[in-house]
Design brief:
The protein has 129 residues and is α/β, with parallel strands linked by helices. It has a single domain (7-128), classed as Response regulator (Rossmann fold, 3-Layer(aba) Sandwich), CATH 3.40.50.2300. It is 46% helix and 19% strand. The chain contains 5 helices and 5 strands, in the order βαβαβαβαβα. The chain has helices at residues 15-26, 38-48, 64-73, 91-100, 113-128, and strands at residues 7-12, 31-36, 52-55, 82-86, 105-108. Strands 2-1-3-4-5 form a 5-stranded parallel β-sheet, sandwiched between helices. α2 (38-48) packs parallel to α3. The longest helix is centred in the last third of the chain and has 16 residues, at 113-128. The two termini are 12 Å apart.
Length: 129
């Protein structure tokens, strides 16, 4: 890791989950910005220009797949890696995410702090190469 903290935007409809992610990643010197819901999430990505996006799938108004599609359609956002963090634990959802949509990783809730940290560090370091 460089001295510059890596920026992460966490798009989630539950404030408690955003706070948990901030706590876990903050200990490892990640700069986490929370966004409640998809619209706010897209605005935060444009503003922060993060190194990584953590994206919940099941949100009201604009779900995670819609956010992901908008990111991939945007010149400024298409290269930002995305880790889906969701309660959708069925294997078909995982296959859709990893192999069809090509998200960078897929974590199911509930997850352990180390699982989240390992995934974030792996995706950011592989994207930096």
């Amino acid at each position: 890791m460089t001295d510059d903290p890596k920026k992460v935007v966490c798009i989630e409809d539950e404030l408690e989950m955003i706070e948990l992610v901030k706590l876990i990643l903050g200990r490892s010197q990640f700069d986490v910005t929370g966004a409640v819901g998809g619209r706010e999430g897209l605005a935060k990505i444009a503003e922060v220009k993060p190194d990584l996006v953590l994206l919940d799938l099941m949100m009201p108004e604009m779900d995670g797949w819609e956010v992901y599609q908008k990111m991939k359609a945007s010149d400024e956002m298409r290269d930002i890696p995305v880790i889906v963090v969701t309660a959708k634990a069925q294997s078909i959802d995982r296959v859709l995410g990893l192999h069809i949509a090509r998200v960078d990783d897929y974590i199911t809730k509930p997850f352990g702090p180390q699982e989240l940290l390992d995934s974030v560090e792996r995706v950011i370091s592989s994207n930096a190469q």
